Each structure stands twice: as C-alpha cells, then as structure tokens.
Amino acid sequence: MTLEELLDSLQRLHDWMRELVLSACERHRTSELSEVVHAGAGDVTFMVGRVSEAALIDWLTREIAVREPIVLIGEGLPQGCITLPETATADEARWRIIVDPIDGTRGLMYQKRPGWILTGVAPNRGSATSLADIELAVQTEIPLVKQHLTDQFWAFRGQGAYGSWFNRLTHESASLAINPSTANGLRNGFATVFRFFPGGRDVLAALDDELCARLLGPIQPGQAAVSNVQYACTGGQLYGRMMGQDRLVADLHPLVAPIVHARGEAAGHCCHPYDLCTMLIAEEAGAVVTDPQGRGVSVPLDTEADVAWIGYANRRLQREIEPVLQELIPTHGLTTSDQLLSTSTL
After folding, report:
1. Rounded Cα–Cα distance for residues 299 and 40 (Å)
2. Which of 57, 96, 6 is nearest to 300 (CA)?
3. φ, ψ dihedrals at 136, nearest 5°
4. 270-275-277-282 Cα dihedral, nearest 10 degrees
5. What contacts 170, CB < 8 A, 6 or more positions away?
C-alpha cells in the first residue's frame, strides 16, 4: 500500500476509534473507565483504553494487513510489537506502524481534557526503525462528551501539515488552519517544563523558574509574565504548539533519573516513542522538536524507551531559548548521557 492509501485507511480508523471511545465515555461511569486492566513496563492501561485497542487490531487486520503485512507497535501488545497477519514475519512487512490508541487517557476518562489518537508510519528497517524515519503521521482529537467539535491533523514528510475539524452534531467538516506562534519571546505566552507525574518535580520546577528569570528578568509584584499548563498528554502538547497556544514545551523527566535514584527514589513515568509518534505534524507545520542537546529526536520505535524532548513554536524562539536551557540543564544536575538518550541529528 502507498502512504496515500494508508492515510485514507488510518483517518477512517481514527474516526471509528474516536466514536467508540466517546460512546464508552457516555455509557460508563468514571469509576468504570478508570479501572486498571493492565500494568506494563511503559504505562498503565485503563478500561477505556481496551475499547480502542481491540478496535485498532481488528481494523488493521481487515483493512491493511489483508493486503500486505505490517508491523504494529503499541502499548499492551505482546512485547510491544506484533506482525499482522499473524502468519507473516516482520521481515515481510514494508511498513512499521506505531500507535497510541488514547494519549491523555487520564484526562479523558475524568472528562478534564480531550485525549488523542496518535499514529506514525515508517518504512520497516527492523529494530533500528526510529521516530526520525516516520513518513506519515495522523493525529485525531477525542473530545470531551460535552464538546461538539473535534480536530484531526496529518502530514507526509516534506509536504507540509494539514488539518480539519468535524462537527459531531451536524456531521459537517472543513479544513483547519495550522498556525504555530510567530512570537520571538515568552512574555505573555505559555511556556512549560512538564512535571505532571511524581519524581524530581522540585528539580524541574527550579529549572523552570530559573529559565524564566534568565529570559524575562526578575519577577515583578503582581506580574504574570509567562504561564504554564501541565497537560499530561504529549499529543495535546504538540497540538498546543501547532495551533499557536504554546511557545515552549519541554519534557525533561528522563534526565531527572540519576538525581532521584541517588535519593533512593524511582523516576516514575516518562514519555515513550508512541507518545511522540506524531511530532512530524508539528515539524511540518513549522514548529521545532529537538532532544535536550538540540538534535533531532531519533529514538527506536518501541514501547519502553524513555524520551526527553523540547518543542519550540518557531526557529526564533529556539535561537533565544535553547542556549539558556542547555546551560541550565547540567547546572541543575540533569544529565544528557547517551545512556539515557538514543538520538542522532536529523
């Protein structure tokens, strides 16, 4: 199948999964949706996640694997990876497809924030296939039950990013403009060093405060020079930069591991490759995604690698912020050792 054919199938798959999850959210209580059904190495799977996982495998088997073998990578699969159809081998597959059926599950099941369906498609290069190899990405919003508009985005490498919205009440749809912020500074905008899960929050908060002080000067009484939002959803974080809402997002949690380990604590949950598999859309829209050393993010397509990444809304913001951030990371005891990060220049 061509990438264009895969896009059509994946968009229809996302639409179907979105409606299945929305139906489950409407029919079940939060206590049921938030029931833990699996605790894996990458993350916890809640009952609401099982709805979309079953639909995902069924669709890919009927719509894509019946035409040619694929390798599917995702949380909850055996060893995080399966080949479809089951009679095929991984070497026969032309494409590796990495999926997060619901990114932002916690916010969605409590109806606090929308979730997202994330999918990336890369040529099959075996276990060496990485995020940098993704050539097609599709990202679809799973809205709150009370929300009637839902967005969808997609991109082919080198061809720009595209979006559309769908009205759940009227079934109308239309194209959606993607406009990352063109600001050249952080003042009066949103910029966030994420620390939504326990483990080194004090270190990340101190780095965040010093970064703001270096870039904006001392805090003035009554002033709110810059704001942050702790949206525990990588797809939502990418959306915020694509749509001009956020100027800087930095997920440095893996770099805190040596500090918390020295305290006798665990680092806790980190971002994984399936969380970041649609970064191509943000990049094609003109935003910037790097590792903490300023290189392209190129971790293997698996379910367990811990990924640290930084997103800038545009190149001017990157030029202003990146040198300061790279200076502060080691001074706060964070490490960018290649033992923690598997990256290469894009």
Report:
1. 20
2. 96
3. -140, 135
4. -100
5. none
Q: Which residues pair with 309 in a beta bridge?
A: 251
| 135 touches 310 (CB < 8 A) | no
pLDDT in the model for residue 172:
98
3-class SS string, the chain:
CCHHHHHHHHHHHHHHHHHHHHHHHHHCCHHHHCCEEEECCCCEEEHHHHHHHHHHHHHHHHHHHCCCCEEEECCCCHHHEEEECCCCCHHHCCEEEEEEEEECHHHHHCCCCCEEEEEEEEECECECCEHHHCCEEEEEEECCCCCCEEEEEEEECCCCEEEEEEECCCCCEEECCCCCCCCCCCCCEEEEECCCCCCCHHHHHHHHHHHHHHHHCCCCCCCCCEECCCCCCHHHHHHHHHCCCCCEEEECHHHHHHHHHHCCCCCCCCCCHHHHCCHHHHHHCCCEEECCCCCCCCCECCCCCCCCEEEECCHHHHHHHHHHHHHHHHHCCCCCCCCCCCCCCC
The pairing of beta strand 95-103 with beta strand 81-84: unpaired
Model confidence over 235-269: pLDDT tens digits?
999 999 999 999 999 999 999 988 998 999 887 78
Closest Cα partner for 115 from 203, 22, 188? 22
Give the Cα separation of 54 and 314 in Å (integer).
38
Average of per-residue pLDDT across 18-47: 72
Nearest alpha-carbon partner for 236 in 151, 173, 109, 162: 151
Output the average pLDDT for the chain: 91
Can you name the residues that pair with 44 across neighbouring β-strands?
Answer: 39
Distances (CA, A) of 32 to 37, 46, 142: 11, 9, 18
Torsion over CA: 52, 54, 58, 61 (sign): positive
Instruction: Give the global pTM.
Output: 0.92
Place of tokens 């995702």: 74
Cis peptide leading into 85, omega within 30 of 0?
yes
